[in-house]
From TrEMBL:
It is a lipid-anchor. It catalyses: L-threonyl-[protein] + FAD = FMN-L-threonyl-[protein] + AMP + H(+). Its EC number is 2.7.1.180. PROSITE patterns: PROKAR_LIPOPROTEIN. The keyword Transferase applies. Its cofactor is Mg(2+); Mn(2+). It is found in: Cell inner membrane. Mg(2+) binds at residues 170, 285. It comes from Duganella lactea. Flavin transferase that catalyzes the transfer of the FMN moiety of FAD and its covalent binding to the hydroxyl group of a threonine residue in a target flavoprotein. Magnesium. Can also use manganese. This is FAD:protein FMN transferase.
Amino acid sequence: MFTRALLAILLLLTACSSDDRLYKTEGHVFGTTVSVTIYGGSQQRAELLGGDVLREFDRLHRKFHAWEPSMLTALNDSIARGQLFRADAEMVGLLKSAEKLSVRSGLLFNPTIGHLIRLWGFQKNDIGAQGPDDAEIKRWVDAHPSLSDLRYDGNTITSVNPAVMIDLGGYAKGYALDRAALILREAHVKAALVNIGGNVIAIGKPGERPWQVGIRDPRGEGTVAQIALRDNEAIGTSGDYERYFMKDGKRRPHIIDPRSGYPIDMVASVTIIAGGGRDPGLRSDGHSKPLFITGPEGWQAMADKLDLKEVLLVDAQRQVHMTPAMRARIEAAKP
């Protein structure tokens, strides 16, 4: 569903006693590998908490899946039929927060273009080369779906535009990170690192050093940089190297420009760091998409618009661009 293995997690720590051991619980949710690494305490407690987090991930995966039967697909079916849908407070809250980001980004972040995502063949597990008809692409672009088309009456949702098809693939993983952080903080863990296919959130500090993560090279096996991730910070990457296909010599990734209806081929990856507040995971996931779409020429203006200070972009020619704050963060993390 939300597949992108985007960050190499480098746990550069040495366990010395039962109080500073690392316990890692792994699973496969959201169509990708997920892990919960807990610092300190007992193995039994770490496994219990890791299990709690994985169960929460599974709940969200089933609830917000974009094409297998879920609450989200039921909402989309109701929108297509012009009917009202009785959701719940969690779904309404997530959609309203996504709408705020969509408006701030000038609709470049637009989770309602599910018809275009499906047309390009990305709403399935096995991706093959697609060549959608230009007229069909234009049809869905000209329909101008947006989250502003939704109307709310409590937890009941309707849409004034039947072309709306919501796909939260670029948002739900970030929400899941924040839910995981809440579960672990309420359990008073000393420190933890949660990784959903490369989207990562940090809790506390494991001993004397912060958590260390590496930003993956989108065209190689290694990393382009290492970063120390502090408490309540999340790092997220949008990349073109997991969910994509090649056609006519062009790479077609799953990130689609809602203005043209075509996948973006100018950017290899965008990584951002978000910190503070109750939703750093959500921001680290959603905010990278508009920067990816604006590309090498427009990403800095979009970063300013979204108040993003720490951004690293690798373009399709493997040139690395970054904000001064991100450069300073990377320099500080060097041995």
